[in-house]
Amino acid sequence: MKYLFSTLFLFSIINVSAQTISPSPEIISKHIYKLASDKMKGRGTGGKENAKAASYVEKEFKKYKLKPLGTDGFRQEFIAKVRRVVVPDSLRKTQNVIGFLDNGAEFTIVIGAHFDHLGLGNQGSSKDDHPEGKIHNGADDNASGVAGLLELARYFSGNDTKEPYNFLFIAFGAEELGLLGSKHFVNNPTLPLSKISFMCNMDMIGRYNPDRGVGIGGFGTSDQWPEIFKPVKSDIKFFTDAAGSGGSDHGSFYAKQIPVLFFHTGGHDDYHKPTDDAEKVDFKAEAGILNIEFQIIQSAMMLPKLKFTEVKN
């Protein structure tokens, strides 16, 4: 057993030195401006623009040569109940988009972000006084997280050496309607949940405030996180929070007793309003946040599969 862990450690160290790709503010910007453009009409669940956003993610997954691990290619379709402000509730087809990086390992790391938003303000939860008919672009919430998801996919798929873990990249649908995409996945997994070491979720990582820093939730969901965080160094300020549950997709995995981390730069005046636009995102800071996440994941891969810890209170 000691030999196995030593070999795993050495393998990871060699792999870290092999990394030649770094997070790109320019690529992050491209993704966010695409997903949060007025043409995408807020990516409301069930709309054709929401489907276009899913297709955009799938195209990027194919570019990085990920394997499809949905129920129909990269797609895992499900029915979402759309809460509407003007007309009665309706059922809409939507999907998760799932890509797998197969390194031939026993266990897998899940990386996720939701791609839906509030559409034209008629799906509930808008903070605007008169939201109907207004495009809610959702640049920070959550085009920023999807951009991070795609950068992580680009980064880990670009390695010359295989990592000691596989990666499952998931763009979740219908998060704004109650974490529906992530709940559907954990209840209908396309990879056994017992094979997941941990899950990283990015939701609103585009509005970095250096006075606050980026919050990293889920620190209490494994007793191994403190050891994993020790070597992390960054000019980006960050702090940790123990909670594993909460109002984003990592909560669905925590409910299944899987260790999680949740990256979030905090609320702001544009939250769930039509004013959450791409030009307000700090692309350079987001690249720095992703660099923190890369370091954490690399450090975690030096250890065996993480053990889950329930967070009290």
E-strand count: 9
Radius of gyration using CA atoms only: 18 Å
Helix content: 25-40%
Structural domain count: 1
CATH class: Alpha Beta
Strand content: 15-25%
CATH overall fold name: Aminopeptidase
Task: Summarize the helix and strand pattern as letters.
Answer: HHHEEEEHEHEEHEHEH
Mean pLDDT: 92
What's the number of helices?
8
Give your account of this protein's structure:
With 313 residues, the protein is α/β, with parallel strands linked by helices. It has a single domain, classed as Zn peptidases (Aminopeptidase). It is built from 8 helices and 9 strands. It has helices spanning 2-18, 25-35, 48-63, 139-157, 180-187, 225-229, 250-254, 283-300, and strands spanning 67-68, 75-82, 90-101, 108-114, 166-172, 196-202, 214-217, 238-240, 260-264. Strands 1, 2, 3, 4, 5, 6, 7, 8 and 9 form a 9-stranded mixed sheet that branches. Helix 4 (139-157) links the parallel strand 4 and strand 5 (166-172). Residues 1-19 have low confidence and may be disordered.
Note the main attributes of this structure.
313 residues, alpha/beta, 32% helix
Topology:
Layout: H1 2-18, H2 25-35, H3 48-63, E1 67-68, E2 75-82, E3 90-101, E4 108-114, H4 139-157, E5 166-172, H5 180-187, E6 196-202, E7 214-217, H6 225-229, E8 238-240, H7 250-254, E9 260-264, H8 283-300
Parallel strand pairs: 4-5, 4-6, 6-9, 7-8
Antiparallel strand pairs: 1-3, 2-3, 3-5, 7-9
Helix pairs in contact: 2-4, 2-8, 4-8
Outline of this structure?
The protein is an alpha/beta fold and 313 residues long. 32% of the residues lie in helices and 18% in strands.
